[in-house]
Design a protein that fits this description.
heterodimer; A: 313 residues; alpha/beta; Rossmann fold; 5-stranded parallel β-sheet; 8% strand; B: 488 residues; mainly alpha
């Protein structure tokens, strides 16, 4: 075989393997990811709901939708405002379900830049996120072109972590039937360590997150959806360490004063409700099943008082 | 643009394709344009800086042969040195000197009038200024004929594979190749691509993965135990090796695809048997540069031991400052000087100890002992190199032995892993990658291993190539992490 022939044969083999790996990745990990499973929940039924719980792991592990009643929890750990900005409209445009209100997290971690640039796996988040629009917003249209290319052309690139999680049924691929055994959250991690993970080395008030939240609120207004911003419970030590690391509650309060509008954008603050009750938490900033049930009851009552949720029975 | 970026993945095949489609006598022009585009992708103004340095040095080198008189020739050389070192000073060392004088003046109650500079350090300036200084000095000393063609000289300075992080090439080696860009044969192209792929593996898979743990610990060393500090430093040894040697491998591999042979820059430094030997295996092109343009002109080892020690100290302190514009790096350089000086003066004693212990009676034992001892010394020098300040380095050094007992507890270790954003499987992968890198690098330099590799059936060789290729894609950390030596 000539050198050119060898080169072409090698390249063809590489492309074939690449194609196989890509298909395998999308069919397994792409399909089993948390976000896809939550999307399926939303898409599978026609019944409208009064409340859609969106957001990150704080929202996911804090709210039991069945306790609220006419509600659905589609929050995904790791989802931040920049992701919600694209995923929320996608959900509303797909399927036949409708909702009247959206719950969004309004926590210290919500405004941190620590995961702002993380859209892995792109094959999942690229389903919603317009990377070129995001790049254009940041002043360089093609700055996220690599993410787009990865999501569409080479989905398994840099995804060792996702594969390991998939194989061990942890984090975004956990076994829903036995969440406590495979949550992927460390039960050893205290509040301060969790706060450091969210805030140390990051910008505690990333303007991109505030911008994304404003855009989400504008989209909800256009869609005539009520929004409830929720500060989910954290441990006292988490809250203290967050403040020490620069997560200034006054900044959130100032933003809230700017965007709040009774009956359109409401606010519920449960941050301190379990401050001194570690039995409610699985770690520094996520509720365990007991805490989730308690909070869900409190949340349901508050949402009823706001007129977002109709009392059951 | 970074070697580990989408832009470069698109840039390189286009440049290589155009290179081989271009008539040989025009290829230098294509590479020159490509090199400037490559460099200006960081910041367009950098191109102007590079062009200025190139123009001055080309003019100086072409004037030198026609100028008589030592004083006049020295003045010309002075122009080149002043422009290159002046640029280096302005962008890299001004703030260090200014801050130092500011602090001294403040301690004397005097106002220091000069403001801080906000100029960003242009990528690669430490490398290409050294390369051109070396060229001009060689022309001055008659070791090198001046390059008459401005374009080819500009290509020598800006050749994109080695522009921003070396190897620092000698004109005598690189210029003749750039004058006759005949390209490479199929085997050479394949070899170059393999080497570049291996370099990318070292960078994206090993260095950037190890960086996750190392950065987490070194970001806040006071909240980690001695075990964690030691582990992070140990892994940093492979992080910095893989980062820098990975870049060099990519540079050499890419150049080989274009038919240009760049010098080897790393030779398995972790297998060094003395601190002196490490500097013949680590960043070889820089070591040679310092040897030829500072150490030998100072007298080298031709004078007595005291003068030799002073020469070594000067070379290593300057080398330390080359690595970073901070007194911490000067101290790091001084530490290496002390170890190299100590290596020479303690050799007879160490030989006597080895003889007394009977180490030489066991075949192969002495080299192993030497390698281990050298690595331990290297390990300690990495601490001030990686720490963000001398204070932090001192803290780490003085707390290395604390808290080790806790890591016998699996729970404590699991907690440590969660704090550094790793799980057990990722951690084990990190550990396994380090000896793998040493093994493969050994294979690259051993002609017998290369012979055996060439003798493998084609499909087996392709299988190994696919394994490396897809390992890079799958295992790599793709987060726009620059190469560490870019900061120098």
């Amino acid at each position: 075989m000539s050198s050119l022939g060898r080169g072409l044969a090698f390249t063809a083999g590489a492309l074939l393997l690449h194609g196989l790996l890509s298909v395998l990745f999308v069919a397994t990990i792409g399909a089993a990811h948390d976000a896809r499973r939550m999307d399926a929940r939303w898409l599978e039924g026609p019944q409208p709901v009064q409340v859609m719980v969106a957001g990150d792991s704080h929202a996911r592990f804090a709210v039991e939708a069945s306790v609220l009643g006419s509600a659905i929890n589609v929050a995904v750990p790791g989802e931040h405002y920049l992701k919600t900005l694209y995923r929320l409209p996608w959900l509303l445009q797909h399927g036949t379900r409708t909702t009247q209100a959206v719950l969004l997290p309004f926590d210290a971690a919500s405004f941190s830049s620590f995961k702002a640039d993380n859209f892995q796996p792109e094959v999942v988040w690229g389903r919603y996120v317009d990377f070129f629009e995001l790049g254009r917003h940041k002043g360089a249209r093609f700055s996220y072109a690599g993410r787009w290319a990865k999501g569409r052309l080479a989905p398994y690139t840099g995804e060792l972590g996702s594969v390991l999680q998939f194989l061990t049924h942890t984090k975004h691929f956990r076994d829903e039937q036995n969440p406590s055994a495979s949550l992927g959250l460390t039960f050893l991690e205290g509040g301060p360590r969790a706060a450091r993970r969210h805030l140390q080395g990051a910008d505690p008030w990333d303007p991109e997150m505030a911008w994304a939240l404003r855009r989400i609120l504008a989209l909800c207004r256009e869609a005539e959806l009520r929004v409830v911003l929720v500060r989910y419970p954290v441990t006292r030590s988490y809250a203290q360490e967050s403040r020490r690391l620069g997560a200034d509650p006054a900044l959130r309060d100032a933003l809230l004063a700017e965007i709040r509008q009774d009956g359109v954008v409401d606010h519920l603050d449960f941050e301190a409700v379990f401050f001194d009750e570690p039995r409610m938490f699985s770690d520094g900033d996520h509720l365990n099943p007991t805490g989730r049930r308690w909070l869900s009851r409190l949340l349901a009552r508050s949402l009823q008082q706001l007129g977002v949720l109709t009392p059951r029975g | 643009m970074l070697f580990n970026s989408l832009e470069f993945a698109l840039f390189l095949p286009v440049v290589v394709g155009l290179f081989y489609a271009t008539p040989i006598h025009r290829r230098w022009l294509l590479l020159l344009v490509a090199s400037y585009l490559f460099y200006m992708a960081w910041e367009p103004a950098y191109g102007l800086l590079l062009l200025t340095s190139t123009t001055i040095d080309w003019w100086v080198s072409n004037r030198l042969p026609s100028v008589d008189g030592v004083a006049a020739r020295r003045r010309l050389l002075g122009i080149s040195l002043a422009s290159n070192l002046g640029m280096l000073f302005s962008f890299k060392y001004y703030n260090l000197i200014n801050t130092t004088f500011h602090q001294l003046a403040a301690s004397l109650g005097i106002d220091w009038p000069l403001p801080e500079s906000s100029l960003l350090l242009p990528v690669g300036i430490s490398f290409y200024t050294f390369q051109t200084i070396g060229y001009t000095v060689d022309v001055y000393q008659g070791r090198q004929e001046p390059e008459r063609s401005f374009g080819r000289f500009a290509l020598y300075v800006s050749f994109f594979p080695q522009l921003v992080a070396g190897p620092i090439e000698r004109a005598g080696r690189l210029l003749p190749q750039l004058r006759h860009l005949g390209g490479a044969g199929p085997e050479q192209i394949a070899g170059g691509l393999r080497l570049a792929a291996w370099g990318l593996f070292k960078k994206a898979v090993v260095a950037d993965r190890l960086a996750i743990l190392v950065d987490a610990v070194y970001r806040d060393p006071t909240s980690f135990s001695g075990f964690a500090l030691g582990l992070a430093t140990l892994l940093f040894a492979w992080q910095v090796y893989c980062d820098f040697s990975g870049y060099s491998d990519i540079a050499i591999g890419v150049a080989r695809v274009l038919g240009v042979d760049l010098m080897k820059n790393f030779d398995q430094p972790h297998l060094s048997r003395s601190m002196t030997e490490i500097w013949t295996r680590w960043h070889i092109s820089l070591s040679i540069w310092f040897r030829d343009y500072i150490y030998i002109p100072l007298g080298g080892n031709r004078s007595g031991p005291v003068r030799w020690a002073i020469n070594i100290a000067v070379v290593f302190i300057v080398s330390g400052l080359w690595h970073g514009a901070s007194w911490r790096f000067a101290a790091w350089g001084a530490l290496h000087a002390a170890l190299v000086i100590g290596d020479r003066f303690t050799r007879p004693t160490r030989d006597a100890i080895a003889a007394a212990l009977g180490i030489d009676r066991v075949p192969g034992l002495r080299p192993v002992v030497q390698i281990v001892c050298t690595f331990v010394l290297w390990f300690f020098t990495l601490i001030p190199f990686r720490a963000s300040s001398l204070t932090e380095a001192t803290y780490i050094l003085t707390h290395l032995v604390s808290g080790w007992e806790r890591f016998g507890d699996p729970e404590a270790f699991a907690l440590f892993l969660s704090r550094v954003h790793l799980d057990w499987s990722m951690f084990l992968i990190c550990l396994l990658l380090c000896p793998l890198v040493e093994l493969v690098d050994y294979g690259w330099r051993d002609p017998r291993w290369q012979e055996r590799a060439r003798a493998l059936p084609l499909l087996v060789r392709w299988g190994l190539d696919y394994l490396v290729l897809f390992s890079i894609l799958f295992l790599g950390v793709w987060s726009d992490t620059p190469f560490m030596y870019f900061q120098f």
